[in-house]
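Hey all, quick one. A colleague (J.T.) asked me to put the adenosine-5'-triphosphate job into the tracker so the inputs and the structure tokens live in one place instead of scattered across chat threads. No bug as far as I know, just bookkeeping. Sequence used:
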Amino acid sequence: MDQVSAKQDDVVLSVKDLTVGFGSNVVLDELNLDIYRGEILGFVGASGTGKSVLMRTVLRLLPRRSGAIRIFGVDFDKATEEERLRLDMKLGVLFQHGALFSALTVKENIQVPMREYLDLPQAMMDELARLKIELVGLAPEAADKYPSELSGGMIKRAALARALALDPALVFLDEPTSGLDPIGAAEFDELIAKLRDTLGLTVYMVTHDLDSLFSVCDRIAVLGNKKVMVEGTIEDMLAFDDAWVQSYFQGKRARSIVRNA
Ligand SMILES: Nc1ncnc2c1ncn2[C@@H]1O[C@H](COP(=O)(O)OP(=O)(O)OP(=O)(O)O)[C@@H](O)[C@H]1O
């Protein structure tokens, strides 16, 4: 196999010429993005540029005007109902603010996707939930707690456990460390990196957190002017000639992270 096709085989998510808009507000205009197997991609952009819109469009929660989306090589538009179901099961999502169901315990929250997609006996679902709780570093007692009884960091972990309920291969995280203190955020980043290493996950992380970008992301993509304006390593960002990218990656906060690295 030549190098180009080997690289193509490693593309788990491919977005081609994607246009999404609401009325006269075109949010994404012929945007292109590839995500490769096993990487942690950090997705950044100024507030309101369309990071959530892109994620929600890829997850088919929003309609697009044009463009193609392929996940694990399958074009959603051409997929059969069965293929779509199988693809859905390979995707895990952690929405901003955790978005756990408040009336359900942690264990019940984790079992929601299992009930939706699988037909398993309760004892097996309980065992699977126990394993996921352990995987994300929560104490076993967390299983029977309600979201209101958890700290912000525990909510994020519980939401991550739910995102991992079906053993996905590609996980979408929408600002996973927002609202956490720096130590909690660093621990969460470490957890994501560990899960990538041990489970072979591919991670798409929308974030404003410079620490996450510097410490765990293999590659960064910046959304601007309705497109992916630049993608690459931190070094590529530092060298990119754009006022927003410069002030974001070369600003005072970023410089202190580089200094302390
Ligand atoms: N359902 C919707 N209907 C109409 N407009 C929408 C909808 N969802 C998003 N928008 C618009 O799309 C644009 C991009 O919003 P989006 O939430 O994706 O930004 P973002 O980059 O995720 O911002 P932030 O970093 O603040 O979360 C905004 O102008 C927003 O008003």
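Adding what we noticed when we looked at it: The chain has a mean pLDDT of 89. The radius of gyration is 19 Å.
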